[in-house]
Specification:
Low-confidence stretches: 1-29, 33-62, 70-96
Number of domains: 1
Number of helices: 2
Order of helices and strands: EEEEEEEEEEEEEEEEEHEEEEEEEHE
Largest sheet: 6 strands, antiparallel
Structural class: mainly beta
Number of strands: 25
Radius of gyration: 18 Å
Strand content: 25-35%
Length: 339
């Protein structure tokens, strides 16, 4: 994630985190980072027949990082600035710079301030399971499809359909996280209370398998309080109806589709878990190679925007503010996220 105080590169997904009083902030707090979709939690789509537990994820090689905006400076620094190419990482910052807060690169195995979780609590030594609520979160194994007893860095692997990996920060939860289901490995999500940018690089090749929701990749953000309590189950067991929400950045709505759509889901203004909106516009699915994108949360205007980036853009240790503003000013639609 990248904020005006943060940046994130990721090929997968991210999610927002609620505080002790989730109903007080419907938008812009913390997302448990990019989760490879199993979709469902309260992600409601008619096509899924209300079955919140079956979603798929088939993404690969991704990088995730978060950046925070630092105070103004006029000095030259390669640590707080960035360019669209690797030719020069040093420039003079005349406005706010964006500095990296978290980072993950599948190809190199680099991982800073990110914990990988999934929904296999009670297996392989982490999380818990009970007959009433099922599995809690668990640590994800490096293969992305099984659980683990301790934190592991996700490998350079393809995540198959009906599997999901959720990215949180490595900061262990404290009282600000609110209620956490007993036994859950609980970590803070990515704070979006100030201007934030998530930088993603991912690919979505075909999954030739079979089954419900096969070959339907997705990259999405979910309020972090939901998976820490109950992502797949009764909405009353999470903060879904009291201020939490979901932002599907890139999702495939039918098996084999080449179209990526975006949707916001929120109880606010609709009084139903099916609430939210999208549009008929779409992005082309990156079947080969990778796609680079910036997801920008702007607090002053209470808007968010998705910007597809040129392949030449590099996710370095910092970003020049003018570059971020160029992405934000690019033609396209912006969504108002005001509460």
């Amino acid at each position: 994630m990248v904020k005006r105080d943060a940046e994130a590169e990721a090929e997968a997904e991210a999610e927002a985190e609620a505080e002790a009083e989730p109903e007080a902030h419907a938008h812009g707090h913390q997302f448990p980072a990019l989760a490879r979709h199993k979709r469902g939690h309260m992600h409601r789509h008619e096509r899924r027949g209300g079955n919140a537990e079956v979603v798929t994820v088939f993404e690969t090689v991704y990088t995730t990082s978060t950046r925070k905006r630092s105070p103004p400076t006029t000095s030259s620094s390669s640590g707080t600035t960035g360019t669209t190419t690797s030719s020069s990482a040093s420039s003079t910052a005349t406005s706010y710079a964006w500095t990296r807060d978290s980072y993950y690169n599948a190809a190199s195995g680099q991982n800073s301030n990110i914990v990988f979780l999934n929904h296999l609590g009670g297996t392989n030594g982490s999380g818990a399971w009970d007959s009433c609520f099922g599995n809690t979160l668990s640590y994800a194994n490096c293969d992305g499809t099984t659980g683990a007893a301790a934190p592991q860095t996700l490998g350079n692997v393809l995540i198959p359909s009906n599997s999901e990996v959720i990215l949180f920060t490595s900061e262990v939860c404290d009282g600000s996280c609110g209620f956490v289901r007993p036994g859950t490995p609980a970590y803070k999500g990515f704070d979006t209370s100030s201007d934030t940018v998530f930088l993603l690089e991912f690919t979505m090749p075909r999954d030739s398998g079979s089954g419900f929701n096969v070959d339907m990749s997705a990259v999405w953000f979910l309020n972090a309080q939901i998976p820490r309590t109950l992502q797949y189950g009764n909405a009353a067991c999470s903060c879904w109806t009291t201020g939490c929400g979901e932002f599907d950045v890139f999702e495939i709505l039918s098996t084999g589709s080449n179209f990526l759509t975006s949707t916001i889901h929120s109880w606010q203004g609709t009084g139903t878990e099916y609430g939210g909106g999208g549009c008929s516009d779409y992005f082309e699915r990156p079947l080969t190679g990778t796609m680079k994108a910036a997801i920008l949360f702007t607090q002053e205007t209470k808007t968010l925007k998705i910007s597809i980036l040129d392949d030449s853009v590099e996710f370095g240790p910092g970003l020049v503010d003018s570059l971020v503003q160029t992405w934000n000013a690019a033609p396209g639609s912006q969504v108002n996220i005001a509460g």
